[in-house]
From TrEMBL:
Keyword Secreted (UniProt): no
Species annotation: Fagus sylvatica (Beechnut)
Name of this chain's protein: RNA helicase
Residue ranges of every copy of the DEAD-box RNA helicase Q domain listed in the record: 146-174
Gene Ontology molecular function, alphabetical: ATP binding; hydrolase activity; RNA binding; RNA helicase activity; translation initiation factor activity
Source organism, top-level taxon: Eukaryota
Catalytic activity: ATP + H2O = ADP + phosphate + H(+)
Keywords from the UniProt entry: ATP-binding, Helicase, Hydrolase, Initiation factor, Nucleotide-binding, Protein biosynthesis, RNA-binding
Length: 519
């Protein structure tokens, strides 16, 4: 770990196994209308008893005063927050996610109460905060955008969004992208994998001045792996914009970071320790930073990064847009929002209370992307036993996989959004009638296909958002009311598999050899 030296004088100061054979094959569980009673966490974590609420009395909060700088933004952070606040909080914490590159443990223990996001509990806390504060802390923003095209985004940003595989914005993207693009401070609270990353990446990419090769946006994440994943998403979405983005994380060469930063970047994504070190060395110049994002804020604060976040923030310009993205809102996260943010837009998207109970879910470790095709061909005879749907993430991949399967004399049909409506209708009519038995498609059609006979769903690609996992295999009256779901998992997919399991409180075990017997 890099030893951090004392910071330069800041511009302002702050004080500071199975679970009943995974799912019982119960013919009575045809409807999906309730959350399963079991709550799961990764093996190895001890069950945390329910904690009693604490009453925390805060002393007067010091007002932040910042020095002059050249950067400008649309929101000001000079609000007076010198008030005492009494709040009730639960001390239960989420277990941390496993690092990437490690086989995921079977999630077999019971999760602590409070580890899953509870919207009503949050509302109670927030109402008490607002009542004690005596001020309208949040800005309301109720517009919902059903498509990316309606959001007023740059054409080249839209190209990047569609090329990445997004076709329709998720619930949080429908509400969150536009306020961020308008320069408003934003608090977005939702589970991991609901599309938060693409939300703030799109907001940042929309606002960058690409003619100015200086760091204009800083994103902090709790782990190296997450920071590097955000860098990948940012680079992919900004592919047609010419964005320059760099991940500053521990465990990598400091000199290489300094070299890249000196050459100029638009966006820096990093972990607090390395980012602060780059600021301390003056390798990362903060003068032009106008956007500051905390991703997985609750996890970052639970890992003890609070002081480092404060140290970083006090070196940033006084007028800066702040986005806080978090699955829960512990006391520390609320404290940050009160100190750093100016009338933030609060965006809370509740998870559909649907269950995947009754669906047997498995994964196959394919290691590499190139090995997925061979694995699918090995399973083809099993696929043909029943009607099956294979999901991939892009329209182009639908065409590619269809050609590959047909070249090996496997009979498949395919449909995606680029096909005209008449062709799609014919293909779906054939599939519903049973004359075609294996269908390759994308998420766009996952919500609209209603074929009762489907009992096997294969995620050739894991969905880019866990909520789409439900639409693919578990929505009532659609896929997977009972049946089997098989997920192909590469090394790069392990974090997403973990997110899906955590998101839906399910175990996704390794595929057994007798898969045909399960259908």
């Amino acid at each position: 770990m890099v030893e951090i030296q004392p910071a330069p004088t800041p511009k302002h100061t702050i004080t500071s196994t199975t679970i009943d054979s995974l799912f019982n094959n119960n013919d009575n569980s045809n409807t999906l209308n309730s959350i399963p009673s079991h709550k799961l966490t990764p093996a190895g974590h001890k069950e945390t008893p329910r904690s009693t609420p604490l009453v925390i009395v805060e002393p007067d909060t010091p007002k932040i005063v910042k020095g002059p700088t050249v950067a400008t933004s649309k929101s000001s952070h000079s609000q007076d927050l010198d008030r005492s606040v009494v709040k009730h909080y639960s001390t239960a914490q989420d277990p941390s996610a496993p690092p990437l590159g490690i086989s995921l443990p079977v999630m077999a223990s019971v999760a602590p109460e409070g580890s899953q996001f509870d919207a009503r509990q949050f509302d109670a806390k927030m109402n008490e905060l607002l009542g004690s504060d005596g001020q309208d802390f949040f800005t309301s923003y109720d517009e919902v955008f059903e498509s990316f095209d309606a959001m007023g985004l740059q054409e080249n940003l839209l190209r990047g969004i569609y090329a990445y595989g997004f076709e329709k914005p998720s619930a949080i993207q429908q509400r969150g992208i536009v306020p961020f693009c308008k320069g408003l401070d934003v608090i977005q609270q939702a589970q991991s994998g609901t599309g938060k990353t693409a939300t703030f990446c799109s907001g940042i990419l929309q606002q960058l001045d690409y003619g100015l090769v200086e760091c204009q946006a800083l994103v902090l994440a709790p782990t190296r792996e997450l920071a590097q994943q955000i860098e990948k998403v940012m680079r992919a979405l900004g592919d047609y914009l010419g964005v320059k983005v760099h991940a500053c994380v521990g465990g990598t060469s400091v000199r290489e970071d300094q070299r890249i930063l000196s050459a100029g970047v638009h966006v820096v994504v990093g972990t607090p320790g390395r980012v602060f070190d780059m600021l301390r060395r003056q390798s990362l110049r903060p003068d032009y930073i106008k956007m500051f994002v905390l991703d997985e804020a609750d996890e970052m604060l639970s890992r003890g990064f609070k002081d480092q976040i404060y140290d970083i923030f006090q070196l940033l310009p006084p007028k800066i847009q702040v986005g806080v993205f978090s699955a829960t809102m512990p006391p520390e996260a609320l404290e940050i929002t009160r100190k750093f943010m100016n009338k933030p837009v609060r965006i809370l998207v509740k998870r559909d209370e649907l269950t995947l109970e009754g669906i047997k879910q498995f994964h196959v470790n394919v290691e590499k992307e190139e090995w997925k095709l061979e694995t699918l061909c090995d399973l083809y005879e099993t696929l043909a036993i029943t009607q099956s749907v294979i999901f991939v993430n892009t329209r182009r991949k639908v065409d590619w996989l269809t050609d590959k399967m047909r070249s090996r004399d496997h009979t498949v049909s395919a449909t995606h959004g680029d096909m005209d409506q008449n062709t799609r209708d014919i293909i779906m009519r054939e599939f519903r009638s049973g004359s075609s038995r294996v269908l390759i498609t994308t998420d766009l059609l996952a919500r609209g296909i209603d074929v009762q006979q489907v009992s096997l769903v294969i995620n050739f690609d894991l969905p880019t958002q866990p909520e789409n996992y439900l639409h693919r295999i578990g929505r009532s009256g659609r896929f997977g009311r009972k049946g089997v779901a098989i997920n192909f998992v590469t090394k790069d997919d392990e974090r997403m598999l973990y997110d899906i399991q955590k998101f839906y409180n399910v175990v996704i075990e390794e595929l057994p050899a007798n898969v045909a017997d399960l259908l």
